[in-house]
Amino acid sequence: MEQLKKKVISFIDSIKGEIFEIADEIYKNPELGNQEFKASKLLKEKINGYGFLVNEVEGLPTAFLAQKKGKKPGPKVALLAEYDALPEIGHACGHNLIAAASFGAAAALGALDEELFGEVMLVGSPAEETDGAKVILVERGIFNDVDAAMMVHPGNRTTVYTTSLAIEPLEFTYTGKAAHAAAAPHLGINALDAVILLFNGINALRQQLRPDARIHGIITEGGYTPNIIPERAVARFYVRAKEKKYMLEVKEKVIACAKGAEVATGAKLSYRNFELGFDNLVTNKTMAETFKANLKELGYHDISDKEEGVGSTDMGNVSQVVPSIHPHIAIAEEDIAPHSLEFLKAAGSERGKEAAVLAAKALAMTAVDIMTKEELLKKIKEEFKKTVEIS
């Protein structure tokens, strides 16, 4: 087993230039969710070159599944690649590094050939920042025969015990009646007033919520000119909480606020999910400990014990159906926040690319542990059954 780890480390070192190339190409060509045609094409071509069978995913043109089976029976491990960028600010979340790291780990495991136990699958999963494809992949049963799923996300600290909040994206539309705001205001129904009351209702609601709940929104439509009473107004919100069950409770309270604004103003309400919702992330601690041990074996020791996530990710949905980890690797100082210009710079830096290589090695080593140690896999699955029931 130690010999296999040495082989994957050596292989990743031999393709370091290719890992850097992938990180750079995706970084320099940022693409929004479900539009990542260049990134997807690049990754598919690269991994196919290492003997992986690449399949498209119906209805998700920038998603893909790349698989390689070993000669020996064993577990199936999935490595998740993300490669979508943010609007205006590009790869300020570092998804270019996620793609490079997962590619490197998958290629290294595939290169074991005769010595590969089980199967490795590189999952190209678009649009994590918006309409997360992992939600759809989970619903289609892509992970039903997977024993463990992994990915590494760049951050401002290194930690293996990550969590995330469940999220529901809600859009509220109010339809009123236009009228001259000065000459005949009594003939109008102000849809913008309804949206303002909705915001005020939610602001009052926050006092009665648990500390882990988050509600934040914007007005996307609110009228065109001050002298016409707005006939249509639209607001979008993200509703989040530590567990999905409580998040859904908060969601119903938010909807109640929206209905109250409808009654108060007379503007007709309609609402919908404008994106897919994400489940909360459940980190498998046994897997996380294994990943942590491999980081240390690689000489990396600056690891935080725990981090409570306050963002959301569609990796949460994966973690509800298969044992999963989503560790963070530091590419920037702690005072540099993701989704910032400073983090964008870090995602394209030498430090960022070196972190992707480190992540690839730790992912591949952890996969080797899972594929070769029956007792470890048994422990991972036993923990998964307990923790998912709780979540």
Task: Give a written overview of the molecule.
This protein has 391 residues and is α/β, with parallel strands linked by helices. It folds into two domains: 275 residues, Zn peptidases (Aminopeptidase), CATH 3.40.630; 108 residues, Alpha-Beta Plaits. A six-stranded mixed beta sheet has the order 1-2-4-3-5-11. A hairpin with a 2-residue loop joins strand 1 and strand 2. Helix 1 packs across helix 4, helix 4 crosses helix 11 and helix 8 packs across helix 11. The longest helix is centred in the C-terminal third of the chain and has 23 residues. It is elongated, with a radius of gyration of 23 Å. The two termini are 34 Å apart. The model has no long low-confidence stretch (mean pLDDT 95).
